[in-house]
Structure formats: structure tokens, C-alpha cells
User: Which sequence fits this backbone?
């Protein structure tokens, strides 16, 4: 094996798919110097953005490289019937690409052993006997002595655990970490780690900004696209284990035989990567495709129809995950249509799935058509009475905040209130309210804020994360869902940095207590470069990016003041829609006195849903964290914030800070050209400039609008707006991505 | 310069965009043997399908390679201010990739001189003094003596002519042709060579099967995607010089200021590649975005609105091409809405564009809502009375046949009838009626059939091609349009072989008399391999593929018997739609007596529109070419065709032959694995299997349906259909690509 050959293979691998070409790259080659390899590699930073964070860049530090090469020659994969080939291909690809050498796969003299616990030999078993209890997907990576040398053991209970361990092992190399004296134990803290695709059968994607759906339903099951394999591999690499293929606003059509054959084809592709498929079930499917005249969950023919449908699905896909349901929300059908409750609806589906170990993920995103109650309160009001009544295989899927994926929301009060029901977190990875594809926003920062929020339900430090993983309630089924930001874009996500949000969601799904900072550093190193001159400033940039978007869109607890329909751009003036709680004025309540939604006892009293500790702290303006100020209070324009300046001044200050932060991001990025692919550099540069333009649009439109109410002068640090308010009001985006397409 | 460096660069170039990295690949490198280069290259056939036919594969024949390398060291690019960089990058990329060596760009001792005629020196001018007259885009490639050695001169009148000459020169190398004693003169036979994108502003594509629109309008003008450059380069390489960016069923919105800025951004990207942008103009735009209450072409305010709009566009885009218009057709607005004629409408727009040298391409695809006349006759009836009345800068854009892009149609009678009006050909590259993305159909075969059809208008051999290029009428403006099959698919067109149809259209647009066979061979060599063991069988496969689809869909002159709406799959039973001439039964007229549409004097008399020679020949069943039999005649089921068998027998025979041809294609393809990229191999294999399944679907559904009328036994060679007719009738495709998306 020569370096030159390795280099060539390295490049070839990056340009081709893994498994298809592995056999091609094993032919013998003449020998050349290693210098060459380095020289060639330094020609440019050619990230193939299709490969996401699995760039497997050549290790350029000669010491690290030599050490790794000495440590790794042969691997013994003993178990993993399901995905042995996937594990082997991934190791071969990764090691070849990072170290420029081929591994042997052999049972003798291997430095790495990959085997299920039950397949370890007596000595190995002895060495790991003190390992903490492993979950099904959990694994250990442990250096053990074997004869005269050290062996790295990757072990766990299931085939998938070995796959996860393998990806973790490769990640150590990507991060240039030491492979000596390893002693890692990893258990996923959540059992269902899943993407929700809001993908329609016609390939449009609701709130999708990365092009269109990667599911080419029309050509399935006959055409299996390379994308499907790449998708599964990427998810597996970060520990995701499920995917809901279709939109929560669902067509019943996907439950028809013809489509189930297509779903099965995808499930077959995904299985070796540990990814289960799930479907959104439209509650009225028994009528629409079943020919029944009701979908009443108490009707025995409806129950039988779902039971038969479940049997049919599991006959095709024995490891089918289950159903996601959006019922009686925003026009979707549900049990309420028949005078039945959410529990009756969810339990009926749960009964159909239970014999097959399937789950129902019932969305809590419900707000009534009729009740005039503060929308932030409604899901809590609706579901709390049912706490404890759901079947064991039902999870209630709750958005992170009580409104709808805003740049900042306090955590959803169901996380503290609903203590006898398994709750799943629903995050939105696609940036519906955070600038679509054009804005660089590192979402793990947002996710971390929610996950580390303290509910106080079992005293201090009762974080949402602990609720989710079941530490406080002991719930057995646990889960987390992320609304996908994946599409047909050549780099999967449109914005090159939106890949970080997919990655970050996956890492937090495995361990909700990971820090955003650690995730940022991992992602930057795996995707671009381990050079500290790149990682440090870029990590800072990522970690500041979420506060930037909050500032230039919805500072100080403002929320839901975006433009109507497409949700891109500011729209604080939005009023007079079919529902009051779809308007902006409903949420910001600007008037001559002040700004903000009084959710204390003197207002909607939504605050009371949070329990006494929080209620007590937040009931007064002066003890409410300023980041939630206008979420909970209607604050006078001249009210003095902690810095001694008025609300109006601070509002302007935050908007301006948001804009300035984007300018900082642009300056930082200009310095990063040496570390990134030329096109990624320019693409990001262009996108940051769009973001800057749009941050000013938000600032100018919102400040001009609110100034009408504050009647106060614009602070001097705010540049004169380019246009009058009417101009901003007149901006329309009828063809914005992610909304219902309109053919003329 | 060493081979190894060249090899590395070769691979790197293939994985990255051209111009962005050219500067990176010029660093010095140590020396290694050329053997290595070949060994490495033979590791696999790694076509990067993004590069289409510009693969620039390393020349593997050592003699050819050595000869080329000796012949090419330095190039002198003297002119081409507009696209000098593009020409230089393309040469550098192509030569580096094919020969593994760098060119110098210098004025001294160059073996290739690229210069406009006016920039040639006296000796060079003398050498080319006998060159036939060049058109603006035409060029010569000529070997001339210069001192003691030969020099290859690439010259023409315009910057773009040098670009076209350069691509031709590189193609010679791709085809492994000799570079000695070159004496080539190329003039494009048509002046407007244009793609029509049926792309909507929301990125859906009407009848688009390769994903969605590559125009990311929302992020323009801020985000310039690499795709735009690649698209322009691909088009330039085959001589296309224009693109209509938006659907013929147009939104007026694209003419608004905000969108014109986006259009300008694309025009700026395309300009160095010689591609002009055009827009579809919605006739009612003065109302929809202009605030007028009429779009009457005789209204002076309407005329002024269009004049102002044209001025505005040309102010942004000085070389804007002009407008395409679909008026008073399938619900689109037009002059008829105001009691005005097509001439009045077209000329009004022509007047607005004339000061800027813009053209109007007015579509002849018109069939009245009211007239009960045979639809095949209506465009002719509508437009013939206006012959000679259109302004000089109006072209009438006529589909190849009188119905609508069917697998086979006789040529459109306007090509013989409309002799005083410039006619443009409109071909459909996207396979609306030919299997969408799933079927391998080499369309240049279809295009050639139309182009070489004899109109007899100036005696024998008055081909449609001669009409188009103006040889028979002397028209000054000439053109050809192809409805694009390009989308967001990773390989641009979905089916890897659909790339050949884009390529073939471009080659025929340059020279409508090229043979389909020559085009097939060029494309196969440029895209995959020059190995005769690949090119010969695959060329046969391509050239047989169109007759296959005619046979399994619409043999013997049948037409328009596809499923409703999405046009995928058979639907001979389609009846009872809002318009009779949208149904299938209208076209096949099957009854107990026979099958086919009588278009002779005893029927609709559409035949009379073709002139006496054709009318005479086709008026009798026995002298009508069998391929058009049921287009012109209602033929008895038991009528004996030339082979002595009945119509019914022959119908079945053709359907079965179509299926068998697809089976042949599959067998041939199985042998091609050594020559093509592994994924392309598998992808094509999967698609061919879909095609086979669908060819059987067509055969079984159509024969079962027609058997109801023939009442004759199914010939023994037809396998028993898997399902009864009702099953085939029940098949629905509500989410098929290319149709209006439906959100549930």
C-alpha cells in the first residue's frame, strides 16, 4: 500500500459514493513519497459539501498521523449481521481518507475489535465486566490489553450500537483526539431520535428552504437514489434512529398500498443504518382512502380499519416505527370532529400499533378555533386534564415553546405540567421564523436554552432535559423530534451552515446535555478544519449568531411579529386576519402606553401554568429576565431597564446590536477564506450579505412601526431608515419558498 | 509540469468548479511517471454527471495522447474582451484534464491563435482570405503555416464566435480526432438557438421531470449559485445562445422591478457565455402589475406601458433578447380578449422591443375554445390569413407537429403554409408524452424526422429544415426553441440519458441537418467512452429507442391517448372532459368498424393543409406511410397492412415490439458496466426496468381497451395481461411530477 495510491483513493472516494466503489479502489499501485500526498492535499480545501460533517480530511499533523497509522492496521468485526458491511465500508472510507491507508478486516491480530457483548471472548468480557449498564443503542469504546498489545474494543448490545460506536471512533480521529487508553461509555439519553419531514407527496416541502423533498415518490420503489443512502448514513453518524417521511399536514394517500410499497423501499435502504421509518397518519384516512363514512375513534369499523392498516404496514415493514399525528389543529381532522377527545383518538391508534411495538406521537400543537384564550395557554389547558390517561405507547410531542418556533420562547409549560405522560420535544431545524435559508443561525444555542431551562418541578435544577429523558418522572419511552431542514439543495440544506443545525440536533438527540459550544467545535472541525485559527473565531461566530437573530427580529421577548403567510421578514403591522391569534398585533400589543403581552395574573395569566417558582419570579417586570420581558409583560415605553435606559431605547439598541453582530460575522468570515472551499466561501459571503440586508429590513421596519406608538425619538445610533414605513408594509413575497406553490 | 501533478489537477478539476479554482492548481509539483497517471485513472469510470458531456476524459490512447501533447503547448488569445477569461479557463481545464498538461497563454510561439478576423496579422489574414462568408457566431478552425511550423487558427467575427470555436476545438480532442491540416468553417444555420424553461416563480416546473427549477428566484440577486455558471457553460458548449427563463403560462410578476433585478443578475452571469435572456410576457401584465384596466393592444396607454417596460428592461439588460408569448391559448390572455387579432397583439409588443433590437416569439400553439374544427387544423386556420402581416422582429413559434409533442406526429402544416412569416421550430426536450424522466428515449431521432420531412413547397427536397433556416423563403430572423428538461436533479436531467436530448437539441439548433447518428456518437464519446465496444452498441440502442416508445405508446399514427392531466401512462379510455379535443376518444375514434382519425377529404380534411403532393400521397390508406396511418385514416380492423396481416394484428405486433425493444435495451446495457460510472450504471438499470414495466402497462392497457372494439382475438405473441382493463383504468397519479402541486 503506497501513499500515492491512498491519496488518489482519498480523492476518488470523496467524489463518489461509498459502498458502490469500494471494490474499485483496492487494486495495487506503485509506490510514491508521502510528501507528495501532503503537497497535493494542500492545493485547496475541496470540501465536498454532499459529505456534510463526514469530510474525513487527511490528518495533516505528521505526529498525529504517524501515531494513528501505527495504531490502526486491522479491524475484527465479529458481529453486526444487519450492518457489518456498512461498518466495514465506513471504516475503510474514513481511515483511507484520513490516514491514507487501507485497513485489513481480519480476526487475527486486529487492533480494533467490533463485537456485541455476547460475542466477546472470555478475556474481553472480563475486561468490560465493570461497564455501567448499556441501553440497546449504547456502546463502549475501551482500550484493553490483549497479549502484548492494546486493543480497542467497540462493543454494545445491538448491531446498531456497533454502528454508533464506529462513527464515534471515526469522530475521534476527525477531531485528532488520542486513541490511547480509551474508556468511553455512551448511552443515548433518549430512545426515539427522529427527524420530521414536512414533505408533501408532490415533493414540495412546507417551510422547506433547501429546495424540494429528497423523496422522489413517483420513481419509488423502482429507482433507489444515492441520496437515500447518503441521508441514512448522515443520520446514523449522529445517532438519529428514525424519520417521519411525510408532512404533519398529511395526505391520507401515503397509507395506500401503492405508497406503502414505496415506503417499504426506503425502509429497506435505511435499515442497515439503524433508521426506522414512521408516517404521519391523517386522522380522516378511514374516510378518504378506506371508504368509510366516519373516522370516529370509537367506531369499531374505524378501529378495525386502523388495525388492518397497521397489520398491512408491519407485514411490509416489520420494524416500522409508528404514527405521528396532527389532529384538530389548524384545520386538520381529529377526534374532536366526532365529539371525542385527544386521548380517545390517540389511544385508538395506539391500540392498532401496540401488537407491533409501534408508537403514536401525538402533537400537542393544538389551539382551538373557538376559545378566545391566550394561544400560549391553550395546549396546556387542552392536555393537562388528560395527563395519565394515554396508553403506554403514546408520546405527546410538544414544541419547545408555547407559541410556534419563535427565535426565542420560554419553554412550553407542558414540560412542567404534564408529569404522568411521556413527552417528546419537537424542535424546528428548518428556519421558518429565523430567516429561512439565508440566515446563519446556529440553532443548538436555542435548543440548549430550552433544554437547560429549569422547570423547578422537583426542586432546583429540574431542567427540561431531565423531564425529557425521564429522570424526573421515570417515563420509559422517551424521544425528541426535529423538523428537518433537508432538501434537494446540492449541499442538502441550502446554507452551508445550516448543516450544523442538522448535526447539532442529532448530537443533542443523543445527549440533550451537550453544550452548544462543544457541538460547534465538533462540527467546525469535522466539516472544515481543526486549525485553531479557524475553529476559535468561527465557534464564537456560531455561538453569537442566535442572539443576533433574536436581536434583529424579536428582542426582549417580542414574538410572532413576522410577515403573514411566508413568515419571511418583519410584519408587526399584521392585523385583521381570520384569527386574531394569527396576527402580530395580538402578540406585541403595542399602544401609546407600552409594548408587550401581559401574561401575568393581571393579564392572560399564562404565567401561572409554569408553577410557583417561575410565576413568582416572572410576575414582576423588574424580576423577569429581560430576554422574556415583553413575552410576559406590557411594559411602558419609558420604563427603565437594568442599564438605566428606557424600553424604547433598549428596543432600538437590541435591533441595532443584531445588525452589528451580522456585520461582525461578515468581518470574521472574510478571514476564513484559507480554511474553506472557495465556493463555500463565496456562497456564505453572499448569504451573509443577504442576512445583513434583511437584518436592517427587520430593524428599520420594526422600529418605524413601534415608533408610532412610543412617540419617542429614534436614538442617534440608529441610522436613518432608507424607506418610510409604508414601503416596508408594501413588500410582498408571493413566491417565497416553503409556502403553498401558486401556479398562475 | 509533471504528469502526477496533472493527474491530481485533473481529478480536482472534475470535482470543483472551473474558474473558482484555476488559480489554486498552478503551484509547482515534483515529478512522477506518466504510467502512474494511467493507472490511477483506470481505477474507475468516475463520470461526474454534473459535467454533462464536458467530461474531458484523459486521452488513453498513448499515440493520440503523445501527438496532442506535442501539438499543444501555448495558446495566444488575442481578442474576445467579453469572454477571454472563459475561453482561457475552458482551454486550461480541458487540456489539463484530457492531456494532463498545462497550456501557456502567450503571444509568442503559440500553436493555437484565437483572434477575431480583424485582429489577425497580415500573413494570417492572407491565409484565410478565401474563407466563405462567416455569420456573426460562425468561426473557422484552420491550420496555417507560420514560419517553420503549423499554427491552428480559431477565428471569427465576434467574441462569441471564438468561444464556439474553442468548444469545437476541445470537442475534436474529446473525439480523438486529428488536429493536423484542419480546415473547418462553421456557421450556425439558425440565429436564435434557445431553451424555453417552463419554470414557475415558485420553482415548480410545468412538465418538468428533473426535480424543480434551477432558478432560485427568492435568493436572487444576492445569491449567485454555481449552477447558473455551469448551466451557461453547458449551453455555450453546444452553441445555444438564449434562454427564456419563465413558463409560457406566465406570471406577470416577473416583469416587476424587483424581479427584473433578479433577471439582470442572471443575464450578467450568462453574458460571457453568449447566452441572452428572454422572458415570457403575460399579455395581461399591464392590468396585473401596471394598474391599467385593459391590455388591449390598440390602447395607447397599453402600448406606452409596454414601451416603458421594454425601456426599463433594456436599461438593466442592454442585450435582453425579447419576449415569448402564449396568447389566447389554453386560458392565457391575449389580444382576442379585446377583439384584436394575433397580429395586432404581436406587432404591438414588437414595436416596444424594436428600438432595442428585441424580438417577439409568438406561439402558434393556439386552438380555439369555440370552433368545432379538428384541433390539428386550427393553428393553420388561425394564422395563415395573417401571413406577411407580422412586423420584422416577430417570429411565429410553431411546435413540430399540429397536435402537441406526441411520440410521433407529421410535421406542422404551418411549415409549408406560412411562407412569408419567419417561423421558429418548437421542440419539447422534456418528455411530457414520452415517459417523463423514467424512459430512455433519444429525441434527436424524433427531431431529425421532423426536420428532414419534405414539405414540397419548392419542389422535392424542400425539407422543414430548409424552411427553418430560410433557404426557401429568405427570412432574415431564424430560430429554434427547445422546451427544457433541466432541473435540480444532481445530474441536471434526472435520467442520465436525458442529457443526450439537451445536447442533441443544441447540436441541431446549430445545424438542423446533423444526423441523429452523428449526434449519438458524439455524445456517447464525450460523456462516457470512445471505446468502439461501447459506442457502437450504445449508438444502436439510442437510435432504436425512439421507435420503441412510439411502438409501446402510440404505434401506426395513434396519438393523444395518454392518461389525463399528468400525461404519464396510457388512457385511451379518456372521455367526457370539458373539451372534446382533450379526450383520447376524440383522437383514436375506435369503433366496431376500425381505428384512427379520418383527416382526408372524407373526414376533417386536415390533410389538405399540406399541399397537393402530400395530400395526393396520403389521401389513400394504401399509399400513406404506415407510421402515419391512423393519424390520417379510420382504418378497418381487418384491413391488411403491407405485411399481409390485419390492422389489429399489426397494432398488437407494434405494441409487443416496443416492449421487446426495451428488453433489448436492458440486455445491451448489462454489457456496458465496464464503461460507465457505477452509480450511473445502476441508476440507468433501475430506470430501464421502470421503463419495461411501463411499456407493458401501455401495451396491456391499450390492447385490452382496443380489443373491445376490434372484437378480435389477442394474437398469441401477446402475453396474457396481468390485470383486467378496469384495473388499468383505475390507476391514478395525483402526485405525478410536472403537474400542478396539490397541498392537502
Assistant:
Amino acid at each position: 500500500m503506497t501513499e500515492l495510491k491512498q491519496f488518489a483513493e482519498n480523492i476518488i472516494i470523496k467524489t463518489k459514493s461509498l459502498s458502490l466503489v469500494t471494490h474499485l479502489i483496492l487494486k495495487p499501485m506503485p509506490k510514491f513519497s508521502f510528501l507528495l500526498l501532503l503537497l497535493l492535499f494542500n492545493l485547496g480545501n475541496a470540501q465536498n459539501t454532499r459529505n456534510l460533517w463526514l469530510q474525513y480530511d487527511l490528518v495533516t499533523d505528521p505526529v498525529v498521523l504517524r501515531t494513528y497509522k501505527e495504531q490502526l492496521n486491522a479491524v475484527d468485526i465479529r458481529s453486526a449481521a444487519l450492518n457489518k458491511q456498512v461498518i466495514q465500508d465506513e471504516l475503510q472510507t474514513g481511515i483511507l481518507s484520513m490516514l491514507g491507508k487501507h485497513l485489513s478486516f481480519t480476526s487475527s491480530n486486529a487492533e480494533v475489535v467490533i463485537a456485541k457483548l455476547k460475542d466477546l471472548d472470555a478475556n474481553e468480557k472480563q475486561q468490560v465486566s465493570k461497564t455501567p449498564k448499556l441501553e440497546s443503542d449504547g456502546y463502549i469504546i475501551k482500550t484493553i490489553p490483549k497479549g502484548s498489545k492494546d486493543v480497542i474494543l467497540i462493543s454494545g448490545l445491538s448491531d446498531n450500537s456497533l454502528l454508533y460506536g464506529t462513527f464515534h471512533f471515526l469522530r475521534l480521529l476527525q477531531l485528532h483526539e488520542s486513541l490511547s487508553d480509551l474508556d468511553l461509555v455512551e448511552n443515548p439519553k433518549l430512545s426515539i431520535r427522529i427527524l420530521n419531514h414536512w414533505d408533501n407527496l408532490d415533493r414540495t416541502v412546507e417551510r422547506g428552504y433547501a429546495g424540494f423533498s429528497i423523496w422522489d415518490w413517483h420513481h419509488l420503489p423502482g429507482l433507489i437514489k444515492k441520496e437515500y443512502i447518503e441521508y441514512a448514513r448522515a443520520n446514523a453518524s449522529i445517532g438519529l434512529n428514525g424519520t417521519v417521511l411525510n408532512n404533519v399536514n398529511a395526505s391520507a394517500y401515503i397509507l395506500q398500498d401503492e405508497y406503502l410499497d414505496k415506503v417499504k423501499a426506503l425502509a429497506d435502504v435505511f435499515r442497515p443504518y439503524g433508521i426506522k421509518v414512521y408516517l404521519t397518519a391523517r386522522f380522516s384516512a378511514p374516510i378518504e382512502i378506506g371508504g368509510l363514512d366516519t373516522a370516529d375513534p370509537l367506531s369499531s369499523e374505524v378501529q378495525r380499519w386502523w388495525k388492518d392498516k397497521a397489520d398491512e404496514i408491519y407485514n411490509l415493514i416489520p420494524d416500522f416505527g409508528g404514527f405521528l399525528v396532527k389532529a384538530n389543529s389548524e384545520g386538520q381532522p381529529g377526534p374532536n370532529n366526532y365529539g371525542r377527545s385527544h386521548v380517545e383518538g390517540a389511544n385508538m391508534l395506539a391500540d392498532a400499533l401496540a401488537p407491533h411495538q409501534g408508537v403514536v406521537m401525538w402533537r400537542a400543537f393544538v389551539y382551538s378555533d373557538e376559545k378566545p384564550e391566550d394561544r400560549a395557554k391553550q395546549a396546556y389547558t387542552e392536555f393537562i386534564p388528560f395527563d395519565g390517561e394515554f396508553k403506554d405507547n403514546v408520546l405527546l410531542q410538544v414544541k419547545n415553546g408555547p407559541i410556534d418556533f419563535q427565535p426565542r420562547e420560554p419553554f412550553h409549560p407542558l414540560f412542567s405540567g404534564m408529569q404522568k405522560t411521556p413527552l417528546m420535544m419537537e424542535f424546528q431545524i428548518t428556519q421558518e421564523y429565523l430567516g429561512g435559508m439565508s440566515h446563519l443561525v446556529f440553532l443548538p444555542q436555542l435548543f440548549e436554552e430550552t433544554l437547560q431551562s429549569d422547570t423547578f418541578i422537583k426542586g432546583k435544577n429540574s431542567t427540561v432535559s431531565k423531564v425529557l429523558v425521564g429522570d424526573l418522572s421515570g417515563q420509559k419511552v422517551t424521544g425528541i423530534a426535529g423538523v428537518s431542514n433537508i432538501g434537494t439543495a446540492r449541499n442538502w440544506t441550502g446554507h452551508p451552515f445550516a448543516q450544523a443545525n442538522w448535526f447539532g440536533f442529532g448530537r443533542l438527540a443523543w445527549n440533550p446535555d451537550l453544550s452548544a459550544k462543544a457541538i460547534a467545535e465538533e462540527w467546525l472541525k469535522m466539516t472544515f478544519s481543526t486549525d485553531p485559527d479557524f475553529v476559535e473565531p468561527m465557534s464564537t461566530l456560531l455561538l453569537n449568531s442566535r442572539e443576533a437573530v433574536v436581536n434583529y427580529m424579536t428582542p426582549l421577548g417580542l414574538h410572532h411579529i413576522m410577515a403573514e403567510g411566508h413568515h419571511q421578514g418583519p410584519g408587526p403591522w399584521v392585523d385583521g386576519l381570520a384569527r386574531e391569534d394569527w396576527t402580530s398585533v395580538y402578540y406585541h400589543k403595542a399602544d401609546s402606553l407600552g409594548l408587550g403581552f401581559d401574561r401575568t395574573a393581571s393579564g392572560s395569566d399564562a404565567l401561572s401554568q409554569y408553577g410557583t417558582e417561575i410565576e413568582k419570579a416572572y410576575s414582576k417586570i423588574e424580576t423577569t429576565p429581560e430576554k422574556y420581558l415583553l413575552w410576559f409583560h406590557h411594559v411602558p415605553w419609558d420604563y427603565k431597564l437594568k442599564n438605566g435606559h428606557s424600553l424604547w431605547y433598549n428596543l432600538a439598541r437590541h435591533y441595532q446590536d443584531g445588525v452589528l453582530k451580522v456585520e461582525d460575522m461578515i468581518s470574521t468570515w472574510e478571514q476564513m477564506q484559507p480554511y474553506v472551499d472557495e465556493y463555500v466561501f463565496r456562497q456564505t459571503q453572499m448569504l451573509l450579505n443577504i442576512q445583513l440586508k434583511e437584518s436592517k429590513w427587520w430593524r428599520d421596519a420594526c422600529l418605524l412601526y413601534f415608533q408610532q406608538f412610543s412617540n419617542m425619538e429614534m436614538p442617534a445610533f440608529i441610522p436613518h431608515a432608507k424607506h418610510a414605513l409604508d414601503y416596508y408594509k408594501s413588500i410582498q413575497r408571493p413566491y417565497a419558498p416553503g409556502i403553498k406553490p401558486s401556479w398562475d
Observations:
- Chain B touches chain A through 76 residues (CB under 8 Å).
